[in-house]
TrEMBL record, chain A:
Pathway entry: Glycolipid biosynthesis; glycosylphosphatidylinositol-anchor biosynthesis
Annotated family: Belongs to the PIGH family.
Domain Phosphatidylinositol N-acetylglucosaminyltransferase subunit H conserved, chain residue ranges per copy: 88-157
Single GO BP term: GPI anchor biosynthetic process
Name of the molecule in the record: Phosphatidylinositol glycan anchor biosynthesis class H
Domain of life: Eukaryota
Pfam families: PIG-H
InterPro entries, A to Z: PIG-H, PIGH-H_dom
Automatic annotation (TrEMBL), chain B:
Alphabetic keyword roster: Membrane, Transmembrane, Transmembrane helix
Name of this protein: Phosphatidylinositol glycan anchor biosynthesis class Q
GO biological process terms on file: GPI anchor biosynthetic process
Keyword Transmembrane helix: yes
Gene Ontology, cellular component aspect: membrane
Length: 190, 603
């Protein structure tokens, strides 16, 4: 199990952890930067200052308690639904690929894609505003058309690692995916 | 290829024995369904498996051996188990052994043909048999298609477990020749209440069907189809709601079993929705009939109607003067104003005439709330419509007048320019008019043009009032549709027994040890998106749309436009379902589309 440091597209530090469970099973996890204390306190103080200003204007103490309540609820919603702590990819050779995002509150949302649906794992480029960003994605097979792609599933969307990290992940994935191709070719030869 | 062994977690502590299950050669995976313990007679085991295969159409066979040794010895047992491989010939013969309380098991295969010397990697996947059996992860289209190549691998496994129900019916208290361990071997799970309800449901369904046939026979009789009555029924939303509920009851009480999962869920949803509806209705009734609430309501009704009429009179007086500083044509203003004022006067007289009977009528009408809260809400909406009937009348007068005026104006404008509307060719043609035609036409045109602001103002004011009433009615109908089509059963199932609505699987890697096979735990992952739950509510919404269409228009042909909305919504849902993993779905978008089609104003 190794852990290496990389950067995201916006410059934040990321950590990639690669773990090999067996010859055909590998887990790659990208850990996003944690919630910064200074941004949290900046937002909280801004909201509370605004509430205090309103209180001074209208002399109603409900504004203050409403502001506290709102800050708490907003923080809980942010941690549970928005802030992603870690995004991981579990590649199991003959079963499939599992994509997990774990949120800061501990919630995990997983999606499992069976190996028969996976056509390929590629790195794509996208032009976003003034930048060109790279992202890793899984191409799903179209059941009707063997050459066609029915869907593109982007990975690591909230951590957005840069190209060097993506190349590492790409190489790891392809080591396992190529085993499957080799196995199917040898079966075909027989 | 990698060999995958799906092992039920309930058999982890079973005694040594042989493994029975299904071998899927295309995927190189073995689904283990149960463990058969010693002593057994091989011939009997084979016969039993053949019987099971006949019933379930699943090719169950002996796959290997399971050795759970509590102590370190018993090497003779392992040799004996290897020899079993020769009796039950299966390629490959899987041997799983567990020592003491160790978490890491040994798993090896015996290949008869030694020509493939490759080291096969083995993956052990633990699964919870009960949850996998009760979840309906296989898509409904290919339930009978166990051998298809392009069926998804996991759905084949789920199918295998779900179809082998018969295998799980024998428990350890049976006196058969074969002793097995599976998820029900400690005693078959059953609930007395569920069994009793199943027994009672058959005669109940038959009774309900008979009653419903009587009621629908009465409803469809010729007596009720004469013109004034059928027009009335079509306008009252209560009748529509009652018809809708009747349809629901017919769906529930039909004696055919549900073919697939979606039909079962739809039936269950309708049943729960009906129950909740009736419960809420009875609650409402108990609140209405205590402490003379009906009397209070009746007492406030007349003053409210009077107040509305007074407000309308004030409004008309304002319009007859100089509303918002605009200068109206005095004569037309006075005529229209007096005409509407007279209407209001008539209306108030009728209301006052009816006032002694209101309480009694309300009392009897309130009794119908026991049919459900939706019926009570529909009655409320109808009462509002009846009480504001005069506003609707004013709107109709204003709209007709305005429509006539616009029609006349456009025709005379064409005359002014020397053109005519050619009805045959549906276009505007030039035409030479006589002098007297031009003279009178221009005169009339000028008159109509200068009378336009007055009529337009009346039209605007009464349209806005009517819109207000329609909005209130629309909100009530929205609430009624919400109660009708909310899939409560699915929601409750999602929270209480989430494995029954599983949308996918989740694999967790358990602790590994070098040299031992890879261990994974397969868990069911509940559906997160409403896309799985929404098609069920779409079904009932569609039914309502259909029933509305049939009631308002006699022929199916004119209903094409309205079905356009629901079919677009349905297509949207199917697209969402296909990509349900990666696109957020809008919850009530399609419900809102259907509602928009209802709020229609008169031309």
């Amino acid at each position: 199990m190794e852990e290496r440091r990389y950067r995201s597209a916006s410059g934040a530090p990321l950590a990639l952890r690669c773990r090999q469970h067996s010859a055909s099973c590998r887990e790659l996890a990208v850990r996003c930067p944690r919630l910064q204390l200074r941004s949290l306190s900046a937002v909280t103080s801004a909201v509370w200052l605004a509430a205090y200003g309103l209180f001074v204007l209208c002399q109603n103490s409900m504004v203050l308690s409403a502001a506290i309540f709102l800050t708490l609820i907003g923080l809980i919603i942010y941690l549970h639904f928005v802030k992603i702590d870690q995004e991981s990819l579990l590649v199991i050779g003959s079963l499939g690929i599992q994509v997990t995002s774990s949120y800061a509150s501990g919630k995990e949302s997983t999606t499992f894609i069976e190996m028969s649906q996976v056509k390929d794992v590629v790195i794509n480029e996208a032009i976003h505003m003034q930048k060109v960003i790279y992202y890793l994605c899984i191409l799903l097979q179209d059941p009707q058309d063997p050459q066609g792609v029915s869907e593109v599933v982007p990975l690591f969307q909230s951590s957005q690692p840069r190209l060097d990290c993506l190349i590492e992940v790409y190489k790891s994935c392809h080591e396992i995916l190529d085993q499957r191709k080799a196995a199917s070719q040898s079966d075909g030869v027989k | 290829m990698v060999l995958k062994v799906f092992f039920p977690s309930c058999c982890s502590s079973a005694e040594s024995g042989i493994l029975i299950g299904r071998w899927i050669p295309e995927q190189s995976s073995a689904v283990i369904l149960a463990v058969v313990h010693f002593p057994f007679i091989p011939v009997q085991v084979k016969q039993y498996l053949r019987e099971v295969q006949q019933v379930t159409k699943v090719s169950v066979s002996v796959l290997g051996s399971w050795n759970n040794s509590k102590q370190e010895k018993e090497e003779s047992l392992s040799e004996f188990l290897e020899d079993l491989g020769t009796i039950f010939s299966h390629e490959p013969w899987i041997q799983i052994s567990k020592e003491g309380d160790s978490k890491f098991w040994n798993c090896s295969t015996l290949q008869k043909q030694p020509d493939n010397h490759r080291e096969e990697e083995i993956i052990l996947v633990y699964y919870d048999q009960r949850k996998v059996m009760l979840s309906h992860l296989h898509p409904p289209s290919d339930t009978a298609d166990l051998g298809a190549e392009d069926a998804s691998k996991l759905s084949a496994i789920f199918n295998t477990v779900a179809s082998s129900k018969v295998l799980f019916m024998t428990d350890r208290y049976d006196d058969g020749p074969i002793k097995m361990t599976h998820w029900q071997s400690d005693g078959i799970e059953a609930s007395i209440i569920v069994e009793l309800m199943k027994q009672a449901s058959v005669p109940a369904c038959m009774l309900l069907t008979f009653l419903l046939s009587l009621v629908s026979g009465v409803c469809n009789s010729r007596v009720l189809k004469f013109w004034p009555l059928s027009f009335l029924w079509s306008k009252l939303s209560t009748c529509e709601q009652l018809g809708h509920r009747l349809q629901h009851l017919q769906v529930i009480s039909s004696s055919k079993k549900a073919q697939n999962q979606t039909q079962l869920m739809r039936k269950a949803n309708i049943f729960v929705s009906l129950l909740i509806d009736v419960a809420l209705g009875i609650l409402l009734m108990s609140w209405l009939y205590r402490k003379n609430q009906i009397g209070h309501l009746a007492d406030t009704l007349i003053p409210v109607a009077d107040h509305v009429a007074e407000e309308l009179q004030d409004l008309l007086q304002w319009l007859m003067g100089a509303p918002a500083g605009l200068k109206m044509n005095r004569a037309l203003d006075q005529v229209l104003g007096r005409f509407f004022l007279y209407h209001i006067h008539l209306w108030i007289s009728y209301i006052h005439l009816m006032s002694p009977f209101i309480e009694m009528i309300l009392w009897y009408v309130g009794l119908s709330a026991c049919l459900g809260l939706t019926v009570a809400l529909c009655i409320l909406s109808d009462i509002i419509a009846l009480l504001t009937f005069h506003i609707y009348c004013f709107y109709v007068y204003g709209a007709r007048l305005y429509c006539l005026k616009i029609y006349g104006l456009s025709s005379l404008w064409r005359l002014f320019r020397g053109k005519k509307w050619n009805v045959l060719r549906q276009r505007v043609d030039s035409c030479s008019y006589d002098l007297d035609q031009l003279f009178i036409g221009t005169l009339l045109f000028t008159i109509l043009l200068f009378l336009l602001p007055t009529t337009a103002l009346y039209y605007l004011v009464f349209t806005l009032l009517c819109l207000l009433v329609v909005i209130v009615q629309g909100l009530i109908h929205l609430l009624v549709d919400l109660i009708d089509s909310l899939p409560l059963y699915s929601i409750i199932l999602r929270f209480c027994r989430s494995y029954r609505l599983a949308a996918g699987v989740k694999f967790r890697v358990l602790e590994q040890q070098d040299g031992k096979p890879l261990r994974l735990l397969m868990q069911l992952h509940p559906c997160r998106h409403p896309s799985l739950v929404l098609p069920l509510s779409m079904g009932t919404g569609e039914l309502k749309q259909e029933s509305r269409k049939l009631v308002t228009q006699e022929s199916m042909g004119t209903g094409e436009q309205k079905t356009g909305h629901s079919s677009v919504g349905k297509r949207k849902i199917q697209l969402l379902k296909k990509q349900c993993l990666y696109q957020p779905s809008v919850l009530w978008q399609c419900g809102a589309d259907i509602q928009a089609a209802d709020l229609q104003l008169l031309p």
